[in-house]
Amino acid sequence: MNYANEVTAHSTDPEEELRVLIQKVARRIRAERAGEGISDTQLGVLWLLASQGRCTPGGLATAEKVSAPAMNRTINNLESRGLVHREPSADDARSVWVSITAAGEHVIAETQRLRQQWFHAQLEALSPAERAALAEVQPILRRLADS
């Protein structure tokens, strides 16, 4: 599907148009990222590890809503790039912990910088009235995002 043409100026469903526009903005923000060839799932794992600390592969699979084998492939890829490392659990010889490395933290920091830079530039291009309108809907968008 061509998302650029998904919403037309003559949309008859304003709720659907709003949903698609929010998705397009989110997709555009996600496009700003560091780390050549890192997938959304891989980046999600890095964000999770950076924000919550080490985790088991099963915990990561649950958080990212993927299967255990898919998460294992994701971890293998990230580990081969030096972005995460595994360490055996001291409590259970069958378990491992996955932690983010300094290189992984750099990918997260650079991705955050690129996304902030892009978004700030977009906001700067808006008129004061447009920025005020966005400020007005911010509590509503927060409530939707938190639901």
Word description of this protein:
By secondary structure, the chain is mostly helical. The protein is 64% helix and 7% strand. A two-stranded antiparallel ribbon has the order 1-2. Helix 2 crosses helix 5 and helix 3 (57-64) crosses helix 4. The chain is elongated, with a radius of gyration of 19 Å.
Give the helix tally.
6
Q: Which range does the strand content fall in? A: 5-15%
What is the terminal-to-terminal distance? 28 Å
Rounded mean pLDDT score: 91
Number of strands: 2
Low-confidence parts, pLDDT < 50 over ≥5 residues? none
Output the helix-strand order.
Answer: HHHHEEHH
Question: What's the short story on this structure?
Answer:
The protein is mainly alpha-helical and 147 residues long.
